[in-house]
Design brief:
- The structure is a single chain.
- The chain has about 300 residues and is an alpha+beta fold.
- The protein has two domains: about 80 residues, no CATH class; about 220 residues, no CATH class.
- Helix content is about 15%, strand content about 15%.
- It is built from five helices and 16 strands.
- Strands 12-6-7-14-15 form a five-stranded mixed beta sheet, with helices on one face. It has a four-stranded antiparallel beta sheet with strand order 1-2-3-4. A three-stranded mixed beta sheet has the order 5-11-8, with no helix packed on it.
Length: about 300
């Protein structure tokens, strides 16, 4: 038996030190673990050896070290970085606008055809990353910066997002079918931020090149997304027995449907279908995988998109 197949869940898989994870500790439950308040950057999670993934938490020291390294890198290279965007990103903007125009704003169709004549390939045709890293007490995502703090009170800044030069923070980023005003909706920031999720499989390191997407008409870029949250506290109340729906910013393949840890992220909010923007620029409606609707809040139709459209 290979000893690398085993790992102490109380040890950090990166440094081997104690991770102080409440969920992994054999001691009695003492409250919410520190790791529940931290969103682990994808770049840091990718450093965990394959055979240790999903077996133990990264320790707080490693998270803080990564944050310092990122901030130092950011400070060193900020003056030399120039904004770069891909043809795929331009298609994303076109498609997001198409979703809203198809539902509510037919007048935007003229703008769509004008935008289709534009091409921007300053980033060698590469897609972008879902999460760039930790900075200024928050995390840089593809849509912008999201600060730390209590759920529903976190500050955010869309101007740092990849799509801001095209959308300028307009409400085109928000889906009117996501009932954010209802009592069962949980805000992540001080207001609604973004209604759509980005295909996380395109966020490799380095990101996927658009020319290497073998079936662009069958590969999702963005889709209606959301998540059922029953593991955090909101407005001072635990959601353990009172789950709520919230925004979710990227799309993944989640197959552990029968597990209590099943948290799908496709949102089938249009008559039990989801709008999906594909890599060739067209928009289509998708049904959930059979039996995949999250049973924690089945009335909200959060489930799994077809796995094959999430693989480039």
């Amino acid at each position: 038996m290979n000893p690398l197949d085993f790992h102490n869940p109380n040890q950090c898989p990166l440094c081997g030190g104690a991770n102080q994870c409440q969920l992994c500790s054999p001691a009695s439950y003492e409250g919410l673990c520190w790791c529940a308040r931290v969103e682990m950057p994808e770049a840091l999670l990718s450093r965990v050896p394959e055979n240790f993934r999903n077996r133990a938490c990264i320790c707080q020291k490693c998270v803080e070290k990564f944050q310092r390294e990122f901030e130092q890198f950011n400070a060193t290279h900020a003056s030399r970085r120039a904004p770069a965007f891909t043809l795929v990103e331009m298609l994303i903007v076109i498609a997001v606008i198409a979703i809203l125009s198809a539902m509510l704003l037919p007048v935007l169709a003229r703008g769509k055809f004008s935008a289709q004549r534009a091409a921007c390939d300053d980033n060698a045709g590469n897609c972008f990353q879902t999460s760039i890293g930790i900075t200024k007490g928050g995390e840089l995502w593809w849509f912008g910066w999201l600060g730390g703090g209590a759920e529903g009170q976190r500050p955010f800044d869309l101007s740092t997002g990849f799509l801001f030069p095209y959308l300028n923070g307009s409400d085109v980023r928000l889906c009117p079918a996501l009932a954010s005003a209802m009592a069962g909706f949980k805000l992540k920031g001080t207001n609604v931020i973004f209604s759509y999720g980005y295909n996380n499989s395109l966020s490799a390191q380095p990101p996927v090149n658009a020319a290497k997407i073998s079936h662009p008409a069958d590969t999702a870029l963005y889709a209606d997304s959301a998540q059922v949250n029953n593991f955090q506290t909101y407005n001072g109340q635990s959601l353990r027995n009172n789950p709520m729906i919230e925004e979710f910013y990227y799309l993944t393949v989640t197959t552990n449907i029968s597990s209590s840890n099943y948290y799908p992220n496709g949102h089938f909010r249009h008559s039990q279908k989801a709008d999906v923007t594909f890599a060739d620029g067209h928009v289509g409606l998708e049904s959930p995988v059979a039996g995949s609707i999250d049973s924690k809040l089945p009335s909200q139709f959060v489930g799994q998109l077809r796995p094959e459209i999430l693989v480039p």
